[in-house]
Design goal:
alpha+beta, Jelly Rolls, 5-stranded antiparallel beta sheet, 4-stranded antiparallel beta sheet, 9 strands
């Protein structure tokens, strides 16, 4: 018995035709849009008319891979060695602190810093996850602050931070669980002091 042919499936000639149309459309998009935008090659003049070619000029300067990006940074550092060295009048400092938060309690640990000073940090929450808000406050700013980021359900984080202005910069954590959570913070770098604000 001959199996029934499904009328909804395309025939071989229909597939060839659809493939040909797709290839022609892809080639047209490549020539008219991708080449001007990515490589600055405008064969048809459409890139200039639509001002797409400007994107190509910008992207031509951008590294195309992590290796190229590393090479670009290395070359820039060789040409401008002062950009790779950040000096600080504040002595190098290392500090560790811990803070235990009861259920639904919040608390802060802050670093007193001058603009441009920086540190490397790592913090962890033992006993549960917390909401964390990293922010900074200028001197005499009252209740105004600058938020850098905020996340929920975090067990820890690590990274580096550069102070965008003079003031105090650090973290606020809130324990939304029904058990105590202990926050442990390690900071190394250039800051005047690490402390718990009252």
């Amino acid at each position: 018995m001959t199996p029934a042919i499904n009328p909804t499936l395309p025939t071989l000639p229909q597939l060839r035709k659809a493939t040909g149309i797709a290839i022609v459309a892809a080639a047209a998009i490549l020539i008219a849009f991708v080449l001007p935008a990515e490589y600055g090659i405008d064969v048809t003049g459409i890139g200039k008319a639509l001002e797409i070619k400007k994107l190509g000029a910008d992207s031509a300067q951008a590294p195309s891979s992590p290796v190229a990006a590393t090479a670009a940074v290395t070359a820039a550092a060789a040409n401008a060695p002062e950009a790779t060295l950040i000096k600080s009048r504040t002595p190098f400092n290392e500090s560790e602190m811990s803070l235990t938060l009861q259920p639904n309690e919040g608390g802060e640990i802050k670093a007193l810093m001058q603009q441009g000073e920086h540190f490397v940090y790592a913090w962890s929450a033992e006993g549960g996850k917390v909401t964390v808000d990293m922010h900074g406050e200028r001197p005499n700013a009252g209740k105004e602050f600058t938020r850098y980021w905020k996340e929920k359900q975090q067990a820890g984080d690590q990274g580096s931070f550069v102070a965008p202005f003079d003031g105090i910069h650090g973290w606020f954590w809130r324990n939304h669980s029904d058990k105590p959570v202990t926050i442990k913070v390690k900071v190394s770098g250039f800051f005047e002091k690490l402390y718990v604000p009252h």
